[in-house]
Amino acid sequence: MQWYLWNAYVPGPILGICDPPGNRTENTLPSGNWHPSVGTQTSKRASKCVVCQCWRGLCGERQLREEGCCQPQAPPRAPAMSNGWKDHLGARSSEPLPVVIIGNGPSGICLSYLLSGYNPYVKPDAIHPHPLLQRKLTEAPGVSIVDQDLDYLSEGLEGRCQSPVALLFDALLRPDTDFGGNVESVLTWKHQKERAIPHLVLGRNLPGGAWHSIEGSMVTLSQGDWMGLPDLQIKDWMCRKRRGLRNSRATAGDIAHYYRDYVIKKGLSHNFVSGAVVTAVEWGTPEPSSPGAQDPSPLFQVNGFVTTADQSQQPFSLCARNVVLATGMSDSPARLGIPGEALPFVHRDLSALEAATRAGTVSPSSDPVLIIGAGLSAADAVLYARHYNIPVIHAFRRSVDDPGLVFNQLPKMLYPEYHKVHQMMREQSILSPSPYEGYRSLPEHQLLLLREDRQAVFRDPRGLQKVFGIALVLALIGSHPDLSFLPGAGADLATDPSQPLSAKRNPIDVDPFTYQSVHREGLYAVGPLAGDNFVRFVQGGALAVASSLLRKEARKPP
Fold first, then answer.
1. pLDDT per residue as tens digits for the range 29-40
2. What is the CATH number of domain 335-477?
């Protein structure tokens, strides 16, 4: 069986890459909203809180967690590739693409950089502060990190991530960042074109992925320096843009702009197709065309469509030897699974609260807003409601002292606003009076049903039912990836196939040193799909994939 490349429509230059938006002053931030009628990106003037520095001093600017709390908006129009890719995809060929990457967020961008011939080497005079790692690095001088034994190098490393390769790459890029140090990276980068592997990166949005769908003034959870990609530090990029970090954190608008710029500056634009939606990925095994042909390996057929300048959808179909899933985890909000969940006053996005506030549907004199969840999205909603004096009932299943609660994992000095919410959750129980007027928490409560008359029925820890009148419901309980383009929606790829995919609890089951699926050869997963939730650590997955693919290429016959 042979699969071919056909019907790949390529309408024009990549939006925001070949032609960055003009007339943008240095004190504006991209909001990430692509306006199809004018073909330019709208901007939002950055505002800095000068009112106060306390937990309520956000002045309407929500905090942002890296995992992403917003759903992708409409894809940008007129995606494209260079003429070289246009010619390649437009012709029928029996030779498939070596790699197709689905998703153009930080994971996909970093992997594209590594597959484009950029290889990391240890600087000859570098001394790593970790003695064991330093000794191992000296054993193979002049050998690229991607060509070394990642299992061996990462052995003995510890940190804030479960992935050994993610810890390794992070330690090489940011040697002592967890201890507050500023030791420079021990890596230097060499561009070796002969080692590049042809690939294509497909994404719904502009390069940067869901970061373009997030309100530009929101602030990252992680330190700004941790948001950078290899060989272009955030602080250097922002200095050239005459911008600065806010309390060591960056805005989402700056990060989205940085990722787009990164693709341009590193010469990766020809690999990216924006506005591409993948509808199906199928796999099979090719038949050798001749007795001396290379051993057959799995082939993947990737089908989808591209949104063109006139908003029409042009289909494409690609054939690839390897497919990398880099779509993230925020495609589909998690469901409550209770009666009344589909009622019109139930929402899953903080923007619904913002809209209701502007419309006057909720106000200081209205019934409370019911916020469900104990994560950072729920905390964002509490902060927003408190800023506008909107009454809140905050319900969550866990105990406030549960060690798995995200607030118990954040340094208080860096995130005072979130720890204030955690304090409120602990002190302002529905039955215990305290100074937080207009806020009530319902720890260890389970929502049973929502009624049309805007009544919410709960079961408390003792099994008793409680009923509250509410004006609006925000169910901010996480999200799941949309892998509907895979057979069985990718359920059989998870660590526990009987449970939904989850970045924290049930990611795709991959080999920890190659990130290749343990169930499907040639299929890889990076980023949150593989359990790496922060930009700082997703780059290790890209390193593992690049190393694996380079070894496959080396095994191919001349």
1. 233 333 322 233
2. 3.50.50.60
